[in-house]
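User: Earlier you gave me the apo prediction for this protein. Now I'd like the version with nicotinamide-adenine-dinucleotide bound, so I can compare the two side by side. Same sequence as before, with the ligand SMILES added.
Assistant: Got it. Here's the input I'm using:
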Amino acid sequence: MTVMDMFNLKGKVAYVTGAAQGIGESLATALAEAGADVAIVDINQEVAEATASKISEATGVKTAAYSFDVTVPENATKLVEQVVADFGGLHIAFHNAGMAHNVAAEDMSIEEWQRMIDLNLNSVFYGTQAAGRHMLDNGGGSIVNTGSMSASIVNVPQPQIHYNAAKAGVVHLSKSFGVEWADRGVRVNTISPGYIGTELLQSEELAPLRKEWEALTPQRRVGSPDELKGIAVYLASEASSYATASDFIVDGGYTAA
Ligand SMILES: NC(=O)c1ccc[n+]([C@@H]2O[C@H](COP(=O)([O-])OP(=O)(O)OC[C@H]3O[C@@H](n4cnc5c(N)ncnc54)[C@H](O)[C@@H]3O)[C@@H](O)[C@H]2O)c1
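And here is the structure of the complex with nicotinamide-adenine-dinucleotide:
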């Protein structure tokens, strides 16, 4: 098999959550460009539909948009069943929906703590378990969860204890799933980005913080969502067949500095 064959995703079916915009949109576009049919999953149905149309027009693969709130446990199984019914299988699952929010640890309400743990951590457990159950019974697959460099370091200067804890959980739960399923054909890995210039980071309010983040990053800039496309296709494809239960940090050098 040539290296280009190893990266080819033709004949594979994938879903990506939080794929309407930002990092998720780039991950979904990458899978489609490598030949996979892709389900675009997001709580924002309107933008998800526009993204699905844009990707299929650009790449010629089959896409469809699905409106699911990933924090509802039952939705994980419903999503897998829907994708399998509409696309004829499921080989690749990316759990990427998530968000950060700044609150000082001493001011954090229990409700806010639980909301962020539900979105950033619990949803990844529901999704990985549901996709994994299908893959274990149907010839295997690759699951890729979006972690963060916040799993390995504590960001400064903004306070985000719930996000940091959730992302550390995502990385370790993905390793745990990966080890449990390692000899049964289902691989589970995480992509842990550093600061990535999604819409979230473009706001005027965050401009001073962004300058600080760039100064702390050895490459002296934030990354672009498209700079995660390579690792996404690597982890989804046969090119990474011996990689499981691992965390892939893509952060311009931040965590090493
Ligand atoms: N941007 C960064 O610097 C950065 C760095 C490290 C990790 N991450 C992680 O990458 C992932 C994507 O971040 P982004 O910057 O692209 O954010 P984004 O806000 O641009 O996109 C997140 C997407 O998730 C969707 N979403 C939110 N809640 C949802 C829910 N309950 N159910 C379904 N969909 C939901 C949103 O509608 C949106 O389309 C997140 O897990 C984030 O924590 C981002």
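For your comparison, keep in mind: The first strand starts at residue 13 and ends at 17.
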